[in-house]
Each structure stands twice: as structure tokens, then as C-alpha cells.
Specification:
Layout (H helix, E strand, L loop, with lengths): L2 H27 L2 H62 L6 H4 L8 H12 L12 H10 L1 H8 L8 H18 L9 H32 L1 H9 L5 H10 L2
Helix pairs in contact: 2-5, 2-8, 4-8, 5-7, 6-7, 7-8, 8-9
Length: 248
Amino acid sequence: MDEKRYIIIIGIILILLSLLIYSIHFVIFGDYEHILSYFLLHLAFVPIEVLCVSLIIERILEYKEKKKRLEKLNMVVGSFFNSVGEELLKIILEGDVGDIRNYLKISDDWDNKTYEETKKLLINHNFNIDIEKINLHKLKDLLEKNRNFLLRLMENPLLLEHESFTELLLAVFHLADELHRRDDLKNLPKSDLEHLKNDIIRVYRLLIIQWLNYLMHLKDNYPYLYSLCLRVNPFDKKSVIIRDKNGR
């Protein structure tokens, strides 16, 4: 039975049930004026019920459902950074020749406004890397080792609501394919190096923006994880020193 037919049948049953109850009331009390008055009184309240259900209760339920989906989505994003994203960021950061570290020395007093302002600056930032300083073999191994994991992320239906993260995954997949097609990464021609450089910069830009979004989520919901991320911030040399001393 399809959904429309099921709804029609249920509707007819409910109407017949209502008529039956009114008929029983008339048989017992014989007061059709009271029945008519009672019917009109409740009929007048229907628009208010529609207002409460469709515009208020439904919006509240929709908001709660959206919040649950975003929470699950952030778990997916967190899984990406724990498995691939953080290491990918560190590898690319080795070749950064700009002033990106000056933007991302994040401290405990950063609020959401500071994060949003930083993201706006980075969207227009002129990212640049020295590809000679990036370990392409290490980068290729990381992406190939996690290829199945990245494919499972792409299959997740939650990503339909997160276009920017989907764009990041597509950029990562493209970079992985470009590296996979090149067997000898040590003797690449200048044209290949320039092509890979552009692909890496694209991933780098999207990765940093998503990393900032992820930190904002941790700050608002998981302060202990947020504190850990600040202590091992790859863009802050002091944090890197602390991490190295602790062996993590």
C-alpha cells in the first residue's frame, strides 16, 4: 500500500468515526443545536491549531532534528581530522612560505567573532607553498593508506548538508589521484610540480577553513578536546614544542 492511499484510508476512517460519535450523541441527547454549536466552536479553533502545529511546534522539531544532524556531521568531520586531516595539515604546512602562522596562533580568549573574522581573512589569503619542502612520498602514502576511509566518508548522506566539507573531500581525492598516477615523485618535470602545487594549495585552503570550523564546534561543545587542540596547534611553534616534549 502506497503512502497516499494509506493517508486517504486513514482520513476516511477518522471522518466516519467522528460522524459515528456525533450520531451517538444525537441519539442519546437529541440536541442537534448543541452538536452544531460544539462543532462550529471546535472548527473555529482549527486555524489556531494549524498555526501552533505547522509554524511553531514543527519548527521546533525541525530545529532539534537539524541540531542532531549537525552533531552527527561534526562527528564525521572530527573523524576525518583525527584520521587524515591533522596529519595532512602538518605535511603541507612544512612547505608553507607565507605568514599563515600569524593568523592561527589561537588562544583561549578567542571567541566565535574572532574565528569568523579569521576565516574571512583566510578566504582571501594568498596561500603559497614551496613544493620542494613537502614530502610528496609521505603525502601520497597518507592518502593511499586512508583511501577506503575517505570513500566511506563520501558515501555518508550527511555530507549533502555540508557543501564546504564535501568540496574539501573532492579536492583531497583529486590530489590523491594526481599523486597515484605518478610513480616517480623524485624526478618530476617542472610542469608536474606546478600542477601538484596548485592542487595542494587548493586542499590547504579548504582544509584550514574546515579546521577552524571544527575548532569552533569543539570550543562550544567539547572544551576538553578544544584545549588539547590548542596545546598541539601545528601553526603555533610553542604548541609544537610542547607536543614534541610529550612525545605526542
